[in-house]
Amino acid sequence: MDNLDYGIIGNCRSAALISKTGSIEWCCLPEFDSSSVFAKLLDEEIGGSFEIKVSEKYTINQRYKKNTAVLITRFSDEGNVFEIHDFMPRYHDEDGKYHAPPELVRFVKHIKGKPVFKVLYNPKLEYAQGETKTYIKDDFIVSLTKTVKFDTVFLYTSFDKNAVLEGQEIKLTKNGYFLMGYNEKILQPTTRKVYLDLERTKVYWLNWTNKTPTYKKYNQQISRSAITLKLLSYDKTGAVLAAATTSLPETIGEVRNWDYRFCWIRDASMVIRVMGGLGHKNVAKRYLQFIIDLMPDKDEKLQIMYGINKEKKLTEETLDHLSGYKGSKPVRIGNAAYKQKQNDIYGILMNVIHAQLVEFSIDIDNGEELWGITKGIVWIVSRHWREPDKGIWEFRTEDRHFTFSKVLCWVAIDRAVKVARILKKTRKLEKWLILEKEIKADIYENAWNDEVNAFTQSYGSSHLDASVLLMESYGFIDAKDPKFVSTVKAIEKDLSNEGLLYRYKNEDDFGLPSSSFTICTFWFINSLFKIGEVEKAKEHFERLLTYSNHLGLFSEDIDFKTKRLLGNFPQAYSHLALIECAINFSTKETEERILESMRD
Fold it and tell me: Which domain holds residue 587?
């Protein structure tokens, strides 16, 4: 498989990736960031998988059941046809609580004829460290390991257990199922019960999707992206994961491989703005609560990222026994970037707090808490905004005065002023307004470069950086300001490669990137749209959509030459930005239609 041709299934507790031939090649249980049960994605030899094998005569097609997270893989050989409906159960139980157990279900639907298939069931627990042994019991198949630590997983099925485990031919004459769970079941599953779980899960997703508005343009892409973002949200705490995977490389054969099964605070403002705007207020509210719960003591610095269960320590390790995706070592778990100092984080957080006050009604307790956080952030920014940091791209070498970080320091104070006005707390306003003007003047003086006619990556630099395109989104500069327009044009000239954008071109800790960071291209499209180049922006957008995989999913990166998807998958940031761009175009068309009808 040359591309990330996978579908994602999940239940807001964990997720699995399934190849376009119906092979489960990545799954962690019981939660997103647990150790893997299947990791063929990261090592084709020893990683482990759950595959449905058919003869070459079969044609295989894959799609999602419309407006759901149920993935359907169809196998057809003329008169012999069957489907695998893959899902993780999620629905309301009789008490009105969510039923989302740590299990995945493969409902095998007989369509016609007498199709034949074999199963390769090969779990490798604990990231395939040590041996996993599998045994047949009366009611289930159990797999266990005790090399690194004790762990087990259970498989229930309507098919002959020996035939399943030995890879024998199975003739399908009626519907059947596989249910793989982290826990032993109290009640034995049946095909009927499993079918009921499938229908209940479908209803859950149809109801959830029904809250998303319908758009005239790009409705399918918006809906699929929204479902994908929901699949990357962790119900228990409200965290949203950056991606469902670890160590998928930004470039094949290189070492830019990171664990993304964590929650970056930076994504928060975008999640709240986009998902709240789509009507999914609960995802946004829970994420906001997740952040508030993490707020440190008044003199403690905020981290850029946390574990999905609010862990602060994300120690990075390498799993040297795994060969990596397409041989790209190392495979990492944990992420050392949690220790980095990134000054933009305070602006991100203040933007979130301001959005909370504007978007949602608040009670006084929450209001007091948010006001306390606001004062604390201003205190920290006023003392640290002049210091260099690692920047949005998490450079692991020396600190610099990154323009994006400075702009977000300005955002922190600008939003604090707005929050103070909303809460009618004006005592500190005068002081804060002076600070806001001071930071803004500093950026105009030091980040603008007359030679390149643009705001640059860092103070005193001539290098361009896609992140400065966000100056307009955060309200630092107007879209029609000549300095912003010329920055967009300079970035297009320097960083665009056949319509895909480099994050930056100056060499970093690992050399010049050979893949495009997907979100940067969306930022660029958004900026073209904002400066009035709507047709050009739309052309770029429609071309970019063709680089998604067969199910409309995007990863973190796209290879400049081959256009293959690279980096962790699916990537929340990419889908957030896709939604934002798609809504812009859809809204623009709606406005134009209204104007035309008024003229008529």
Answer: 214-232+456-600
